[in-house]
Write a structure and sequence with these properties.
The complex is a heterodimer of chains A (about 90) and B (about 375).
Chain A (H helix, E strand, L loop, with lengths): L6 E2 L5 E5 L4 E6 L2 E4 L2 H9 L6 H12 L3 H17 L4 E2 L1
Antiparallel strand pairs in A: 1-5, 2-3, 3-4
Chain B lengths: L9 E5 L26 H14 L3 E5 L9 H10 L3 E6 L6 H10 L3 E6 L4 H8 L4 H15 L3 E7 L7 H10 L4 E6 L4 H4 L2 H4 L3 H17 L5 E5 L19 E4 L5 E2 L20 H7 L1 H5 L16 H4 L4 H8 L15 H12 L21
Parallel strand pairs in B: 1-2, 1-8, 2-3, 3-4, 4-5, 5-6, 6-7
Antiparallel strand pairs in B: 8-9
The chains are: A alpha+beta (about 90), B alpha/beta (about 375).
Bound molecules: iron/sulfur cluster (SF4) (2 copies).
Chain lengths: ~90, ~375
Protein backbone atom coordinates (compact mmCIF):
# COMPACT_ATOMS: atom_id res chain seq x y z
CA UNK A 1 0.00 0.00 0.00
CA UNK A 2 1.38 3.39 -1.02
CA UNK A 3 1.47 6.33 1.40
CA UNK A 4 -0.82 8.47 -0.77
CA UNK A 5 -3.49 5.78 -1.21
CA UNK A 6 -6.74 6.19 0.69
CA UNK A 7 -8.20 2.97 2.11
CA UNK A 8 -11.93 2.56 2.82
CA UNK A 9 -13.95 -0.28 4.25
CA UNK A 10 -16.60 -1.02 1.62
CA UNK A 11 -20.20 -1.70 2.50
CA UNK A 12 -20.57 -5.17 4.01
CA UNK A 13 -17.20 -5.09 5.78
CA UNK A 14 -17.15 -3.93 9.38
CA UNK A 15 -15.25 -4.08 12.64
CA UNK A 16 -16.83 -6.09 15.40
CA UNK A 17 -15.79 -6.86 18.94
CA UNK A 18 -16.14 -10.61 19.50
CA UNK A 19 -17.16 -10.84 23.16
CA UNK A 20 -16.98 -14.62 23.30
CA UNK A 21 -13.35 -14.80 22.16
CA UNK A 22 -12.35 -11.41 23.54
CA UNK A 23 -10.96 -10.23 20.20
CA UNK A 24 -11.60 -7.69 17.48
CA UNK A 25 -12.59 -9.18 14.15
CA UNK A 26 -13.27 -7.85 10.70
CA UNK A 27 -16.59 -9.18 9.48
CA UNK A 28 -16.90 -9.58 5.73
CA UNK A 29 -18.91 -11.73 3.31
CA UNK A 30 -18.33 -15.38 4.33
CA UNK A 31 -15.32 -14.44 6.45
CA UNK A 32 -14.39 -13.30 9.92
CA UNK A 33 -10.79 -12.12 10.05
CA UNK A 34 -9.24 -12.07 13.52
CA UNK A 35 -7.32 -8.85 14.04
CA UNK A 36 -4.08 -8.41 15.92
CA UNK A 37 -3.38 -5.16 17.75
CA UNK A 38 -1.82 -3.36 14.83
CA UNK A 39 -4.47 -4.59 12.40
CA UNK A 40 -7.19 -3.28 14.65
CA UNK A 41 -5.39 0.02 15.31
CA UNK A 42 -5.03 0.67 11.56
CA UNK A 43 -8.56 -0.31 10.57
CA UNK A 44 -9.92 1.79 13.39
CA UNK A 45 -8.35 4.83 11.73
CA UNK A 46 -9.57 3.99 8.23
CA UNK A 47 -12.25 6.56 7.49
CA UNK A 48 -12.21 6.92 3.72
CA UNK A 49 -10.76 10.43 4.12
CA UNK A 50 -7.18 10.06 5.21
CA UNK A 51 -4.37 8.41 3.26
CA UNK A 52 -2.36 5.44 4.43
CA UNK A 53 0.54 7.82 5.07
CA UNK A 54 -1.56 10.08 7.28
CA UNK A 55 -2.86 7.10 9.21
CA UNK A 56 0.58 5.67 9.90
CA UNK A 57 1.80 9.14 10.97
CA UNK A 58 -1.07 9.45 13.42
CA UNK A 59 -0.40 5.98 14.82
CA UNK A 60 3.30 6.58 15.11
CA UNK A 61 2.59 9.60 17.32
CA UNK A 62 -0.06 7.81 19.32
CA UNK A 63 2.06 4.72 20.04
CA UNK A 64 5.40 6.45 19.93
CA UNK A 65 6.70 3.99 17.32
CA UNK A 66 8.59 4.62 14.05
CA UNK A 67 6.22 5.31 11.14
CA UNK A 68 8.02 3.12 8.59
CA UNK A 69 7.82 0.24 11.04
CA UNK A 70 4.05 0.64 11.31
CA UNK A 71 3.71 0.95 7.53
CA UNK A 72 5.78 -2.18 7.04
CA UNK A 73 3.86 -4.18 9.65
CA UNK A 74 0.45 -3.29 8.28
CA UNK A 75 1.00 -2.81 4.54
CA UNK A 76 0.97 -6.50 3.67
CA UNK A 77 -2.11 -7.10 5.79
CA UNK A 78 -4.01 -4.31 4.05
CA UNK A 79 -2.90 -5.54 0.63
CA UNK A 80 -4.25 -8.99 1.48
CA UNK A 81 -7.60 -7.47 2.49
CA UNK A 82 -7.61 -5.52 -0.74
CA UNK A 83 -6.97 -8.67 -2.81
CA UNK A 84 -10.05 -10.24 -1.19
CA UNK A 85 -12.07 -7.08 -1.90
CA UNK A 86 -12.47 -6.40 1.83
CA UNK A 87 -10.80 -3.01 1.39
CA UNK A 88 -11.27 -0.40 -1.31
CA UNK A 89 -8.45 1.93 -2.19
CA UNK A 90 -8.65 5.22 -4.06
CA UNK B 1 -17.70 -31.01 28.34
CA UNK B 2 -15.96 -28.29 26.35
CA UNK B 3 -12.68 -30.24 26.17
CA UNK B 4 -11.02 -27.86 23.77
CA UNK B 5 -13.99 -27.72 21.40
CA UNK B 6 -13.98 -24.20 19.92
CA UNK B 7 -17.21 -22.24 19.62
CA UNK B 8 -18.77 -22.17 16.13
CA UNK B 9 -18.18 -19.25 13.77
CA UNK B 10 -21.04 -19.74 11.34
CA UNK B 11 -24.65 -20.85 11.44
CA UNK B 12 -26.79 -21.78 8.48
CA UNK B 13 -30.44 -21.13 9.25
CA UNK B 14 -32.70 -23.05 6.90
CA UNK B 15 -35.74 -20.86 7.42
CA UNK B 16 -37.96 -22.95 5.18
CA UNK B 17 -37.72 -25.75 2.67
CA UNK B 18 -40.26 -24.03 0.43
CA UNK B 19 -38.90 -22.66 -2.83
CA UNK B 20 -40.42 -21.50 -6.12
CA UNK B 21 -37.60 -23.26 -7.97
CA UNK B 22 -37.02 -26.99 -8.05
CA UNK B 23 -33.33 -27.40 -8.92
CA UNK B 24 -32.35 -31.04 -9.38
CA UNK B 25 -29.26 -30.54 -7.15
CA UNK B 26 -31.06 -28.95 -4.22
CA UNK B 27 -29.21 -29.64 -0.97
CA UNK B 28 -32.43 -29.95 0.99
CA UNK B 29 -33.14 -33.49 2.13
CA UNK B 30 -35.39 -35.56 -0.08
CA UNK B 31 -37.69 -35.78 2.96
CA UNK B 32 -38.38 -32.08 3.49
CA UNK B 33 -39.71 -30.27 6.54
CA UNK B 34 -43.40 -29.50 6.15
CA UNK B 35 -44.53 -25.91 6.08
CA UNK B 36 -46.63 -26.34 9.22
CA UNK B 37 -43.59 -27.56 11.16
CA UNK B 38 -41.55 -24.41 10.44
CA UNK B 39 -40.43 -22.49 13.51
CA UNK B 40 -42.03 -19.12 14.11
CA UNK B 41 -40.41 -15.69 14.37
CA UNK B 42 -40.00 -15.83 18.15
CA UNK B 43 -38.17 -19.13 18.25
CA UNK B 44 -35.81 -18.09 15.46
CA UNK B 45 -35.15 -14.83 17.31
CA UNK B 46 -34.18 -16.75 20.42
CA UNK B 47 -31.97 -19.08 18.34
CA UNK B 48 -30.14 -16.07 16.87
CA UNK B 49 -29.51 -14.70 20.36
CA UNK B 50 -28.27 -18.06 21.61
CA UNK B 51 -26.04 -18.40 18.55
CA UNK B 52 -24.43 -15.01 19.11
CA UNK B 53 -23.89 -15.79 22.80
CA UNK B 54 -22.28 -19.09 21.80
CA UNK B 55 -19.77 -17.34 19.52
CA UNK B 56 -21.40 -17.44 16.07
CA UNK B 57 -20.38 -14.41 14.00
CA UNK B 58 -21.79 -15.22 10.59
CA UNK B 59 -25.42 -16.06 9.99
CA UNK B 60 -26.47 -17.47 6.63
CA UNK B 61 -30.19 -17.13 6.06
CA UNK B 62 -31.04 -19.90 3.69
CA UNK B 63 -33.70 -22.40 2.71
CA UNK B 64 -35.24 -23.45 0.36
CA UNK B 65 -35.89 -19.87 -0.55
CA UNK B 66 -35.73 -17.64 2.54
CA UNK B 67 -37.80 -14.99 0.73
CA UNK B 68 -40.70 -17.46 0.97
CA UNK B 69 -40.91 -16.48 4.66
CA UNK B 70 -43.25 -13.56 5.23
CA UNK B 71 -41.27 -12.54 8.32
CA UNK B 72 -37.89 -12.37 6.58
CA UNK B 73 -37.39 -8.65 7.27
CA UNK B 74 -38.22 -9.12 10.96
CA UNK B 75 -35.81 -12.04 11.16
CA UNK B 76 -32.98 -10.00 9.61
CA UNK B 77 -33.65 -7.23 12.12
CA UNK B 78 -33.57 -9.73 14.98
CA UNK B 79 -30.31 -11.24 13.75
CA UNK B 80 -28.62 -7.84 13.47
CA UNK B 81 -29.94 -6.93 16.91
CA UNK B 82 -28.29 -10.09 18.23
CA UNK B 83 -25.00 -8.86 16.73
CA UNK B 84 -24.73 -11.31 13.82
CA UNK B 85 -23.38 -10.65 10.33
CA UNK B 86 -26.34 -11.44 8.08
CA UNK B 87 -26.00 -13.07 4.70
CA UNK B 88 -29.08 -13.84 2.61
CA UNK B 89 -28.72 -16.87 0.34
CA UNK B 90 -31.39 -16.47 -2.29
CA UNK B 91 -32.46 -17.09 -5.87
CA UNK B 92 -34.03 -13.58 -5.66
CA UNK B 93 -37.38 -14.98 -6.79
CA UNK B 94 -39.92 -13.44 -4.44
CA UNK B 95 -37.84 -10.38 -3.60
CA UNK B 96 -39.71 -7.27 -4.64
CA UNK B 97 -38.11 -3.84 -4.81
CA UNK B 98 -40.00 -2.79 -1.69
CA UNK B 99 -38.87 -5.81 0.26
CA UNK B 100 -35.25 -5.26 -0.74
CA UNK B 101 -35.48 -1.72 0.61
CA UNK B 102 -36.94 -3.07 3.84
CA UNK B 103 -34.10 -5.59 4.09
CA UNK B 104 -31.67 -2.72 3.59
CA UNK B 105 -33.24 -0.80 6.46
CA UNK B 106 -33.24 -3.93 8.59
CA UNK B 107 -29.45 -4.03 8.23
CA UNK B 108 -28.90 -6.96 5.88
CA UNK B 109 -25.14 -7.16 5.33
CA UNK B 110 -24.72 -9.21 2.18
CA UNK B 111 -26.58 -11.12 -0.53
CA UNK B 112 -25.48 -14.37 -2.09
CA UNK B 113 -27.39 -14.87 -5.30
CA UNK B 114 -27.68 -18.28 -6.94
CA UNK B 115 -27.29 -18.54 -10.69
CA UNK B 116 -28.74 -21.58 -12.43
CA UNK B 117 -27.50 -20.61 -15.89
CA UNK B 118 -26.37 -17.52 -17.77
CA UNK B 119 -29.44 -17.23 -20.01
CA UNK B 120 -33.14 -17.79 -19.60
CA UNK B 121 -33.20 -21.05 -21.55
CA UNK B 122 -30.61 -22.74 -19.33
CA UNK B 123 -31.55 -21.10 -16.03
CA UNK B 124 -35.27 -21.79 -16.35
CA UNK B 125 -34.67 -25.36 -17.39
CA UNK B 126 -32.37 -26.05 -14.43
CA UNK B 127 -34.58 -24.24 -11.94
CA UNK B 128 -37.73 -25.76 -13.42
CA UNK B 129 -39.42 -22.35 -13.35
CA UNK B 130 -40.30 -20.43 -16.46
CA UNK B 131 -39.63 -16.69 -16.23
CA UNK B 132 -37.32 -17.21 -13.27
CA UNK B 133 -34.23 -15.85 -14.98
CA UNK B 134 -35.94 -12.62 -16.02
CA UNK B 135 -37.27 -12.08 -12.51
CA UNK B 136 -33.82 -12.69 -11.10
CA UNK B 137 -32.24 -10.16 -13.45
CA UNK B 138 -34.88 -7.60 -12.51
CA UNK B 139 -34.08 -8.12 -8.83
CA UNK B 140 -30.37 -7.74 -9.59
CA UNK B 141 -31.03 -4.18 -10.80
CA UNK B 142 -32.68 -3.31 -7.49
CA UNK B 143 -29.90 -5.01 -5.52
CA UNK B 144 -27.35 -3.01 -7.48
CA UNK B 145 -29.22 0.25 -7.03
CA UNK B 146 -29.39 -0.24 -3.26
CA UNK B 147 -25.73 -1.19 -3.22
CA UNK B 148 -25.88 -4.49 -1.36
CA UNK B 149 -22.56 -6.31 -1.39
CA UNK B 150 -23.11 -9.24 -3.73
CA UNK B 151 -21.67 -12.70 -4.28
CA UNK B 152 -22.82 -14.73 -7.25
CA UNK B 153 -23.08 -18.46 -6.71
CA UNK B 154 -22.85 -20.36 -9.98
CA UNK B 155 -23.72 -24.02 -9.47
CA UNK B 156 -21.96 -25.83 -12.24
CA UNK B 157 -22.65 -29.26 -13.77
CA UNK B 158 -22.52 -31.05 -17.11
CA UNK B 159 -25.29 -28.97 -18.69
CA UNK B 160 -23.99 -25.50 -17.89
CA UNK B 161 -20.23 -25.94 -17.45
CA UNK B 162 -19.67 -24.31 -20.84
CA UNK B 163 -21.30 -21.11 -19.51
CA UNK B 164 -18.57 -20.45 -16.95
CA UNK B 165 -16.88 -17.62 -18.84
CA UNK B 166 -20.19 -15.86 -19.36
CA UNK B 167 -20.98 -16.32 -15.65
CA UNK B 168 -17.74 -14.54 -14.79
CA UNK B 169 -18.73 -11.65 -17.07
CA UNK B 170 -22.20 -11.56 -15.58
CA UNK B 171 -20.75 -11.32 -12.09
CA UNK B 172 -18.80 -8.25 -13.13
CA UNK B 173 -21.79 -6.69 -14.88
CA UNK B 174 -23.80 -7.20 -11.70
CA UNK B 175 -21.10 -5.49 -9.68
CA UNK B 176 -20.44 -8.62 -7.61
CA UNK B 177 -17.19 -8.59 -5.67
CA UNK B 178 -17.04 -12.33 -5.52
CA UNK B 179 -18.24 -15.41 -7.37
CA UNK B 180 -18.43 -18.95 -6.14
CA UNK B 181 -17.93 -21.44 -8.92
CA UNK B 182 -19.37 -24.46 -7.20
CA UNK B 183 -19.45 -27.77 -9.01
CA UNK B 184 -22.46 -29.76 -7.82
CA UNK B 185 -21.78 -31.86 -4.74
CA UNK B 186 -23.71 -35.07 -4.68
CA UNK B 187 -25.90 -34.89 -1.60
CA UNK B 188 -29.65 -34.42 -1.22
CA UNK B 189 -31.44 -34.30 -4.55
CA UNK B 190 -28.19 -34.24 -6.52
CA UNK B 191 -27.45 -37.80 -5.46
CA UNK B 192 -30.51 -38.90 -7.45
CA UNK B 193 -29.36 -36.83 -10.40
CA UNK B 194 -25.84 -38.04 -10.88
CA UNK B 195 -26.59 -39.31 -14.39
CA UNK B 196 -28.03 -35.97 -15.42
CA UNK B 197 -25.52 -33.70 -13.68
CA UNK B 198 -22.12 -35.38 -13.54
CA UNK B 199 -19.57 -33.35 -15.50
CA UNK B 200 -17.16 -35.23 -17.73
CA UNK B 201 -13.53 -35.44 -16.73
CA UNK B 202 -12.61 -33.15 -19.59
CA UNK B 203 -15.15 -30.57 -18.50
CA UNK B 204 -13.87 -30.70 -14.93
CA UNK B 205 -10.30 -30.11 -16.09
CA UNK B 206 -11.30 -27.32 -18.41
CA UNK B 207 -13.25 -25.55 -15.67
CA UNK B 208 -10.24 -25.74 -13.36
CA UNK B 209 -8.06 -24.26 -16.10
CA UNK B 210 -10.52 -21.39 -16.71
CA UNK B 211 -10.66 -20.65 -13.00
CA UNK B 212 -6.88 -20.47 -12.72
CA UNK B 213 -6.67 -18.08 -15.67
CA UNK B 214 -9.58 -15.92 -14.55
CA UNK B 215 -8.16 -15.56 -11.04
CA UNK B 216 -5.03 -14.14 -12.58
CA UNK B 217 -6.82 -11.87 -15.04
CA UNK B 218 -9.39 -10.52 -12.55
CA UNK B 219 -7.12 -10.13 -9.55
CA UNK B 220 -8.33 -7.39 -7.23
CA UNK B 221 -11.60 -7.02 -9.16
CA UNK B 222 -13.45 -10.30 -8.75
CA UNK B 223 -12.62 -12.88 -6.09
CA UNK B 224 -13.22 -16.41 -7.36
CA UNK B 225 -13.88 -19.21 -4.88
CA UNK B 226 -13.92 -22.61 -6.51
CA UNK B 227 -15.38 -25.97 -5.58
CA UNK B 228 -14.01 -28.53 -8.06
CA UNK B 229 -15.78 -31.68 -9.24
CA UNK B 230 -15.34 -34.05 -6.36
CA UNK B 231 -15.63 -37.45 -8.04
CA UNK B 232 -12.89 -36.67 -10.53
CA UNK B 233 -10.42 -35.58 -7.83
CA UNK B 234 -7.71 -37.60 -6.08
CA UNK B 235 -8.23 -36.14 -2.63
CA UNK B 236 -11.51 -35.41 -0.89
CA UNK B 237 -12.73 -32.03 0.26
CA UNK B 238 -12.07 -30.91 3.75
CA UNK B 239 -15.29 -31.53 5.63
CA UNK B 240 -16.95 -28.28 6.80
CA UNK B 241 -13.58 -27.04 8.09
CA UNK B 242 -13.75 -30.01 10.45
CA UNK B 243 -16.92 -31.66 11.76
CA UNK B 244 -18.24 -29.78 14.77
CA UNK B 245 -15.44 -27.19 14.79
CA UNK B 246 -16.68 -24.29 12.71
CA UNK B 247 -20.32 -24.35 11.77
CA UNK B 248 -23.77 -25.67 12.48
CA UNK B 249 -27.01 -25.93 10.61
CA UNK B 250 -30.55 -25.45 11.90
CA UNK B 251 -33.41 -26.99 9.89
CA UNK B 252 -36.81 -25.34 9.43
CA UNK B 253 -38.28 -27.50 12.20
CA UNK B 254 -35.44 -26.84 14.64
CA UNK B 255 -33.08 -29.77 14.34
CA UNK B 256 -29.44 -28.86 14.81
CA UNK B 257 -27.07 -30.58 12.37
CA UNK B 258 -23.28 -30.62 12.06
CA UNK B 259 -23.72 -30.30 8.27
CA UNK B 260 -26.67 -29.88 5.93
CA UNK B 261 -26.56 -33.51 4.78
CA UNK B 262 -26.01 -35.07 8.22
CA UNK B 263 -29.53 -36.51 8.30
CA UNK B 264 -28.39 -38.99 5.66
CA UNK B 265 -26.38 -40.80 8.35
CA UNK B 266 -29.04 -42.96 9.96
CA UNK B 267 -27.41 -43.65 13.33
CA UNK B 268 -26.93 -39.98 14.26
CA UNK B 269 -29.38 -38.45 16.72
CA UNK B 270 -30.06 -34.76 16.59
CA UNK B 271 -31.40 -32.37 19.18
CA UNK B 272 -33.90 -29.61 18.57
CA UNK B 273 -33.60 -25.96 19.59
CA UNK B 274 -37.11 -26.18 21.03
CA UNK B 275 -35.85 -28.70 23.59
CA UNK B 276 -32.30 -27.62 24.48
CA UNK B 277 -30.14 -24.52 24.46
CA UNK B 278 -27.95 -24.24 21.38
CA UNK B 279 -24.73 -24.23 23.43
CA UNK B 280 -25.61 -27.50 25.09
CA UNK B 281 -26.32 -29.06 21.70
CA UNK B 282 -23.05 -27.75 20.22
CA UNK B 283 -20.90 -29.12 23.03
CA UNK B 284 -22.80 -32.24 24.13
CA UNK B 285 -24.99 -33.63 21.35
CA UNK B 286 -23.74 -37.06 20.28
CA UNK B 287 -24.00 -36.28 16.56
CA UNK B 288 -21.63 -33.32 16.95
CA UNK B 289 -19.20 -35.40 18.97
CA UNK B 290 -19.36 -38.41 16.63
CA UNK B 291 -16.74 -37.16 14.16
CA UNK B 292 -14.91 -34.48 16.10
CA UNK B 293 -11.14 -34.79 16.09
CA UNK B 294 -9.46 -37.84 14.57
CA UNK B 295 -10.03 -40.65 17.09
CA UNK B 296 -13.00 -42.10 15.21
CA UNK B 297 -10.96 -42.66 12.04
CA UNK B 298 -9.95 -46.04 10.74
CA UNK B 299 -7.26 -46.84 8.17
CA UNK B 300 -6.04 -45.53 5.79
CA UNK B 301 -6.97 -42.17 7.38
CA UNK B 302 -5.70 -42.92 10.89
CA UNK B 303 -2.05 -43.12 9.81
CA UNK B 304 -2.31 -40.56 7.00
CA UNK B 305 -0.47 -37.26 7.25
CA UNK B 306 -3.39 -35.43 5.64
CA UNK B 307 -5.83 -36.38 8.37
CA UNK B 308 -5.93 -32.94 9.95
CA UNK B 309 -6.08 -31.31 6.51
CA UNK B 310 -9.21 -32.99 5.13
CA UNK B 311 -10.43 -34.90 8.21
CA UNK B 312 -10.93 -38.00 6.06
CA UNK B 313 -13.28 -36.11 3.73
CA UNK B 314 -17.05 -36.12 3.82
CA UNK B 315 -18.90 -38.42 6.24
CA UNK B 316 -22.13 -38.21 4.29
CA UNK B 317 -20.34 -39.22 1.09
CA UNK B 318 -18.74 -42.21 2.82
CA UNK B 319 -22.22 -43.16 4.02
CA UNK B 320 -23.85 -42.71 0.62
CA UNK B 321 -21.24 -44.54 -1.46
CA UNK B 322 -19.56 -47.03 0.86
CA UNK B 323 -22.44 -47.50 3.30
CA UNK B 324 -20.22 -46.68 6.29
CA UNK B 325 -20.02 -43.14 7.66
CA UNK B 326 -16.72 -43.92 9.40
CA UNK B 327 -15.00 -44.98 6.19
CA UNK B 328 -12.48 -42.92 4.22
CA UNK B 329 -14.25 -40.69 1.71
CA UNK B 330 -14.27 -42.82 -1.47
CA UNK B 331 -13.03 -39.83 -3.46
CA UNK B 332 -9.62 -40.35 -1.82
CA UNK B 333 -7.02 -42.14 -3.91
CA UNK B 334 -6.11 -44.18 -0.83
CA UNK B 335 -9.65 -45.52 -0.45
CA UNK B 336 -10.21 -49.06 -1.77
CA UNK B 337 -13.36 -47.67 -3.42
CA UNK B 338 -11.63 -44.87 -5.30
CA UNK B 339 -11.31 -46.72 -8.63
CA UNK B 340 -14.94 -47.80 -8.54
CA UNK B 341 -16.07 -44.29 -7.85
CA UNK B 342 -14.08 -42.88 -10.74
CA UNK B 343 -15.47 -45.38 -13.22
CA UNK B 344 -18.95 -44.76 -11.81
CA UNK B 345 -18.38 -41.05 -12.36
CA UNK B 346 -17.45 -41.65 -16.00
CA UNK B 347 -20.55 -43.75 -16.48
CA UNK B 348 -22.77 -41.07 -14.95
CA UNK B 349 -21.11 -38.47 -17.16
CA UNK B 350 -21.77 -40.58 -20.26
CA UNK B 351 -25.51 -40.85 -19.56
CA UNK B 352 -26.22 -38.02 -21.94
CA UNK B 353 -29.97 -38.50 -22.18
CA UNK B 354 -30.69 -38.74 -18.47
CA UNK B 355 -33.60 -36.43 -17.55
CA UNK B 356 -33.57 -34.14 -14.50
CA UNK B 357 -35.35 -35.41 -11.42
CA UNK B 358 -36.64 -32.10 -10.07
CA UNK B 359 -36.99 -31.62 -6.36
CA UNK B 360 -40.56 -31.58 -5.17
CA UNK B 361 -42.24 -29.07 -2.90
CA UNK B 362 -42.48 -29.76 0.83
CA UNK B 363 -45.89 -30.80 2.09
CA UNK B 364 -48.71 -28.29 2.55
CA UNK B 365 -49.82 -25.66 0.11
CA UNK B 366 -47.40 -23.06 -1.13
CA UNK B 367 -48.08 -19.46 -0.21
CA UNK B 368 -47.07 -16.58 -2.42
CA UNK B 369 -43.95 -14.82 -1.16
CA UNK B 370 -45.73 -11.58 -0.51
S1 LIG C 1 -30.94 -25.33 -4.72
FE1 LIG C 1 -32.61 -24.62 -6.00
S2 LIG C 1 -34.42 -25.67 -5.22
FE2 LIG C 1 -32.85 -25.87 -3.67
S3 LIG C 1 -33.22 -24.17 -2.30
FE3 LIG C 1 -31.70 -23.49 -3.78
S4 LIG C 1 -32.85 -22.51 -5.39
FE4 LIG C 1 -34.29 -23.73 -4.18
S1 LIG D 1 -6.54 -41.32 3.65
FE1 LIG D 1 -8.05 -40.13 4.77
S2 LIG D 1 -6.89 -38.48 5.72
FE2 LIG D 1 -5.59 -39.35 4.10
S3 LIG D 1 -5.99 -38.08 2.30
FE3 LIG D 1 -7.39 -39.85 2.21
S4 LIG D 1 -9.26 -39.11 3.20
FE4 LIG D 1 -7.63 -37.69 3.77
Amino acid sequence: MLAQEIPTLPRGVRLHYDKVRGKWVLLAPERAVTLDQIGHAILNEVDGQRSFGQITTALSEKYNAPQDQIAEDSGGFLDALRARRFLDVT
Amino acid sequence: MNRGVPPPIAMLAELTHRCPLSCPYCSNPVEMAKQDSEMDTDIWTRVFEEAAALGVLQLHLSGGEPASRRDLVTLVKAARQAGLYTNLITSAIGLSERRLHELDEAGLDHIQLSLQGTDAVMADKVGGYRGGFDRKMKAVEWIKAIGFPLTLNFVLHRHNAHQLLRALELAQEMGARRIEVATVQFHGWALQNRDALMPTRDQAQQVTQHVIEARQALKGELVIDYVPADYHDDYPKRCMGGWGTTGLNVTPDGQVLPCHAAQSIPHLQFDRVQDKPLAEIWYNNSAFNAYRGTEWMSEPCQSCDRKTIDFGGCRCQAMAIVGDANATDPVCIKSPHHKDLQSQANQHAASIDAPFVYRTAPGKTREPAE
